[in-house]
Structures are given as structure tokens and as C-alpha cells.
Amino acid sequence: MNNLEPNKWIEQLIRPQILGPLLIIIGFIGLYFSTIVRNPYTILYPLVLIGAVSAFYLLRPHTEIKMVILETTYLKAILVVIFVLCSLLILQYRASGFHRTNIVFYFTFAAYVFSALFILSSSHETIGLLTILLIGITNRLTSYYNSALYSGVDIYSHSHFVQTTAQEGSLIVFSTNKYFYSPFYHILVAVGELTYSVPTRDAIALTVLLAVTVLPVIIVYSITSAFWNRQVGLIAGWLYVTADFAINWGIQVIPTSLGVVFFALLLFSLVKYTNLKEKRQYGLVISFIVSLMFTHQVSLFIGITAIGVLTLVILIYRMELSETALNLGLVAGFSMFVDFIVTKYSGPSGEASFFDVVLGNLLAALLSMGALTRSEIKLPQDPTISPSGAAALTLLQVTGSALLLLLAVFGALYWLSMQRTNREFFTGVLLSGIVTALLAVTLAGPAIGLRNLLPNRWWAFLYLPLTILAGPGLLVLVQEMRYKWTGRSEMVIGFVVLLLFISPYTVLMVGNHAGAPDQPFLDDAPGAESLSISDQDQELIEHSERYQGDLDIITDRRLSAIFSRYYDVSSRTLYIDYNEPASLYQPSIIVNRKYIHTKHAQYEVEYNDQRMVVHGAFPLKHLPVDNKSQLYNSGDNSLTYYRV
Q1: Has residue 636 got a pLDDT over 90?
Q2: Quick check: 394 and 44 in contact, CB under 8 A?
Q3: For 7, which DSSP code?
Q4: What proportions of the chain, in percent to the nearest 5, are helix, strand and coil?
Q5: Which residues pair with 629 in a beta bridge?
């Protein structure tokens, strides 16, 4: 029996004839759940499951994907347009003082759309791959430098660690930190800083930013091309490079970003190992899981989850214990045991292991979890404040990822319905299993109040197998459109594809809260925060240091983190008792930047003896006028002294 031949009963169960109705049932269960926990994910994703299965049954695609070339006459013209758009993008970015204006966004959107048109119209895979990588890098760099400091929160701590590592030439900065056991990111950037003789910010861009942009796209392209054709691989790569959270970790460049790189390499090795059974590939699986171990604990856990799911898939697929499943299970179990036991949560000088702390937090979360523990349930019905998390988003912010999921479900059903080789069929099952597991953690965790596994960071990892499934999904839809519209010109079909999917997907992914964390183009939602720091904000921070003395500095939640992580200045997050708006730390200095008066700002509210993070304009006007005096004013920003 072939090692990849499925058990005959299992083979029947994982055919679309069984999976389709099952997905529809899950979709309807999800719709019911959305009446209990209501946010864009619980509303859209169940509809996507139902819609994708319905579309698959309506179209019934059973022909092999061919090289779908829409129009070859204007290839050179399309390349010229892409080059002109990128040039105009950079020129406009420079002319606006290295800020992303709406015009810069328009050029970015257009460049992505024309690159997709080139891929759909050309068989030149090398040029196509270079084109999407060029635009992806340009997009991330313009966003990365669209801030006087960094865009993000954790990056301020990690940039400080990198600077200290480069200066000291040792890991002494981690003596009381768990990153003593996972310093790959900091060592890599520190080496880049010393090698290129550039500031830390530029070293991060030259090392991790480029790696997290280029390598995952190449991996997605390589895996997809191996099982379909190179055009499908390019489409999958394009879907990934434009995906919101894939962009996000190329802008908020922290150890998670490097974790995405190693996870992509791990996924590639897992696919190769399960197909070829080569010892060399098994060695690579071990090396990449070790790399994740020395990079980031959450990334390691995601990698272990993927290997664990793959082991389970193999066991169920064959209904027997194979050498491959045993080897992978040993890697997952041993790496988790070593990392969780050896790693001390507070560094080598600490006592509690990472396992003790994480398990304790996880058990506490499990004991208190439930839909009613979510902040949107506990907060008062007040239009001036919004809960944090998914409830602070709108349907517009999530529609891009919903489109990607729709294509992935359609593509997975198509993959499993084709009478292909055992190797190809098994890989479709493997990828679908990993997507299902990662999606379950990413969505179910926050839905029931379980956030200890940081599910929001799982998206970029999830998008890797998701786009591999979505690539054939998009191409087969285009192909079916060609068959249904026989006699229509290729240009008309191409225009419809761009209008109905490519353009909306690009804007919704590249412009939403995750795709543009520095300054969202689509800023309709309270959760669409702007994480960039303006020159005026930086000036305000530096002025507040001079006035501080023995007073507390209080400001919005994001700026408070920058004070402590980057400037090593103690500060507090703006906080009020909901029933007593005048309550505030006093005496104190309020860092009153323009941003705290927008619906996107974050501060803390106490309600019914519980303190929660909310979005909304901070009610500074409710503080007694006699208790406030202005220390500094620069127009939109000011420092306010508040006292009893």
C-alpha cells in the first residue's frame, strides 16, 4: 500500500459530498452563535462557509486548472504602468514629508491591482514574482517609516533590547526576561546594525522586514506551484503579500515577524517530508522548530500546533500509526517539553518556568471563560465608548479576510474533489487540517474570552496555508467564468475579475486596521487605531519629561507604553470611574495629544468594580475647570496640569 493512500472509509468521509453539508451546518451554528457574541467575525465567517459551499455546488468545477491567460497583447504596457505607479508612489511619499497621504494609498492600491492583472495575463513567473515582491516591500517600507518613531507597541521594547545587545555585545539585558531563551530576533538585528553601521530602526528594516516580506511569499508560491501550476502559485503569493496581517507583521516588526518566517520554512519542510519521507527534510523540520524555539514562544506554540495537527491528520488519514506520524509527534512533544520546562519566565535569574506561568494563566482563563466575560457585555450602553478587540471593528474591516476565507474553502473543496494522485490529495487534506485548527484557535479563543494564547497573532501564520488553498480557488473561478461566458472578450472577463474581486480585496486588506496599522485608510471603526507617532507627538513626549518631576504622567494607552518602553519614563494610562467622570490620578500631567479626542483612542474605564480598556474620545472636558492649568501648548497638542 502506498504510504499516502488513505483508508477507504476516511477517503469517502473527506470528499466534498460529505464535507460540504458539514460546513453548511457549521455555518448555521455560527450564525446562531453570532446572536450571542456579535462581532464582524461571527457574522461574516459563517456566511462565508455557507456561500463558498453553495458556490462550489452551483459551479461544480471538475476540470484541471490551466494557464489562465486573459490578454497577452498589453503585457509590456501593464509592466510600464506598474513601474510608473511605483515611481509616483515613492515621489508622492517623499513630497509629503515621508507620510502616507490618501494619494500614496491610491498609488499603492493601483500597483497591487495591476500586478494581479499582469499575473493573470502572463506566463512569465519570474517577472510576476519580482513584481509582487517589489510592491509588497514598497508598501511595507512606506508604512514602516510613516512615523517619527515606530508604529506599534512591542517594537519599542525590542528595539531597546537590540540597541543594548549591540552596545554590550552580550545578552545581559535579558537577565530578567524570558527572551534570554529566544534571542534570535535581537541577535539578528544587532548583527545587522553593526554590519551595516546603521541605526536600529534601519537595521530592523534591512533584516527582519525584508525577510518577513520575501520568504513567506516565495514559500507560498513554491508549495502551490508544486501541486498546480506556476500561475496558481503566483496568485497564491499575491493573495499573501496583500493580506492584512501579513502586511501588519512587516510593519510592526517584532519577534513574531521572524516567527512567521521560520513557520513558513517549517510548513515547506513538513509538506516535503510527508510527501518524500526524506531524512534531510526531517532534519529541516527539527532545525526550523528549534529556530522557532529560539525566536518566540507563541510562534513556537503555533508551530507545535501545526505539527500536532499534521500528526493527527496522518493517523486518521491512514487509520494506523506510521513512522512519519511517530517522528512528527516526537518532535512536537519534545520541543514543547524542553521549551516550557527550561525557559524561565523572568529570565535565568527567575524561578517560575514558562510552563508554570502560562499554564496558570491558561487555567485561570479557562475557569473564567465564557461569552459573558467579554468586555462588550459588561460595558454600559454608551455611544461614546466602544469595547476593545473584535467588537471595536466593523464589517468593512473584516470583509477582506472573509473574501480570502471564501476562496480558500472553495479551493479546498475543489482540491479534494479532483481525482488526483494520492500525494496531491493528501497535501490538500494536510493544509485543510492545519487551517481548520489554526482558525479554531484564532476565532474561538477571543469569542469566549480566552486571550492568553494571543490569538490575534495567529492570523499571519494562518494565512500561509489559507492562501495556498485560495490560489486554486480564485483561478478556478476565473476559469469557470471563461467557460460560462464563451464568446466574451478576454478583456471583458479580466475587467469583471478586477472589479468584483481583485480591487475590493486589495483595498479591504491593504487599507484596513491590520493592513495599515500606522494610519488606516479605512478608519470607520473605533478599533482602526493609528499606531504611528507624529513629529508633534514626539515633541510633546519630550516636553512632558521636562515637566514631570514627582508628578504622574497620564496619557492614552498606546502613548503610555511608548513612555515606559522607549523613554524609560513611568506613566499611567488615562483612567476614569464611569460613574464619576471627574475621577483621575492627581496631581498629574495629562499628555493631551490630539489623538485622545478621537474615537480610536484607548483608555481605561471602571464600571461595576471592573476595569476595562475601551476606545473613545477621553472626556477631558468633564474634569473641573478650576483643577486644570495648561503647562504647554503647540496647537493641537498640550500638557495639562491636573490637581485637587
Answers
A1: no
A2: no
A3: P
A4: 65, 5, 30
A5: 641
